[in-house]
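Objective 1.3, modelling of assemblies. Example input:
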Amino acid sequence: DQQVKQNSPSLSVQEGRISILNCDYTNSMFDYFLWYKKYPAEGPTFLISISSIKDKNEDGRFTVFLNKSAKHLSLHIVPSQPGDSAVYFCAATGWAGNQFYFGTGTSLTVIP
Amino acid sequence: DAGVTQSPTHLIKTRGQQVTLRCSPISGHKSVSWYQQVLGQGPQFIFQYYEKEERGRGNFPDRFSARQFPNYSSELNVNALLLGDSALYLCASSPGQSNEKLLFGSGTQLSVL
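Predicted structure (tokens):
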């Protein structure tokens, strides 16, 4: 049972435009959410996180939005750069925080 | 500062064999977690160890086992390998036990023939 879902396997965006990656979850006990970026043959790299007490968190070009009522989070990248081309995973965990549930990933391609 | 290091980077085994994967966490981190990533899927939780004790176990058979040493490094063992065990095995560390970002190593790519 997939508790974290990324329904878009791929996304293409022009350089300089906004990239929006979406993630849905089913478990209402999740209270901490993260985004990771992954290049082939490398481990995931942490990008940004948000706890359930917030609805927005920014870090440079990256902003994560959390809509708890809809059980939905999104990652905005503005402006998108070719180096952002990678697979992006969202992850979630509950109060125990010892097990993270990952989505299946969205492959982002930023076209120069 | 050194990140999470894993060894070996690649491994080829045959069905029925046993394998041991190794992980050294970031200095000062006491928690190590293991994840399996099959091609086209997201990482799946296998184990978490904190202060040398198992604190969580995912939905994996008993062929999978792990331990954490006094220096907080960790080993993942898989016995009686199956073709379906072919995957990227990721180790992640964090300072404490819960609700902190996981920092991943580059993984061990295991191929079972």
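The radius of gyration of chain B is 13 Å.
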